[in-house]
């Protein structure tokens, strides 16, 4: 009951990259960088295990950013001439690469870190990839001329990598779709279909993570404009409930998401966010347990997974470590209480 997992990213150690940044510069290059990425991955595998988590991830130590890490292995993308683009409906500006030709994978994207992860833990492992709609929203298109067409082109590439990750022994492939909270009409017309294309043929568990973003200032400001009740999930959960995706990861603790929206995910496993990534204050096990228990009103207990609200990449490393421990302790407390009736 209540297995624990992180949404995806963890902070990079100061010797690997700049800290507290969403697009940090690497400290090394070439072979030294490749080795440093794997060393950091190993460190976080151990930290997650020591904290007592049930599903272990690579902490996204090998990618500079959760979208651009994938794009770096895609042909047809010009990284030399980045352009400024307003992303997530112009919530913030980012320098993004441009799609200039038909996209194709250069080869495997995450083989090294997925295989390292599989080799160093006997627990279940989860691997994250950006979702097609979020990729489309984080790149400038100069070739396809349609967000939908571009999304399906990327979905095919994501599917190739996802099938290869499954062959590496990955138990859960998760697609990150923060853009689903921004473009509900597109989600319903092609977003979920593109997601299913990315997950096509997978026999391992499939998941989608939908959130209100990292705890960066632009997102914190945006959240202030969303009012007392954040009802974005209401527009996309029915389509996800009808989809073949197994698990949905959502924000809960300290958010203004009405918890009853989880009831719209009937039949799905729900990864409920019980750790806030926009605050450095570490949750007590009691808060975590209470958030989990409140979700039980809307999700059956055998379908509830305790998770973080979002990735922890831009956070302080010590804070992230403490939050991993709070996650595990809180879930253990909730389990104890259930057992005691
Ligand atoms: Zn997120």
What does this structure look like?
- With 341 residues, the protein is of the alpha/beta class.
- The protein is 38% helix and 19% strand.
- It has ten helices and ten strands.
- The strands form two sheets. A seven-stranded parallel sheet has the order 1-4-6-7-8-9-10. A three-stranded mixed sheet has the order 2-3-5.
- A hairpin with a 4-residue loop joins strand 2 (74-87) and strand 3 (92-105).
- The longest helix is centred in the last third of the chain and has 24 residues, at 317-340.
- The radius of gyration is 19 Å and the shape is globular.
- 48% of the residues are buried.
- The mean pLDDT is 96.
- Zinc ion (ZN) is lined by residues 7, 178, 209, 211, 310-311.
- Spatial separation of the terminal alpha carbons: 13 Å
* Number of E-type strands: 10
Number of helices: 10
Rg result? 19 Å
Which structural class is indicated by helix and strand composition? alpha/beta
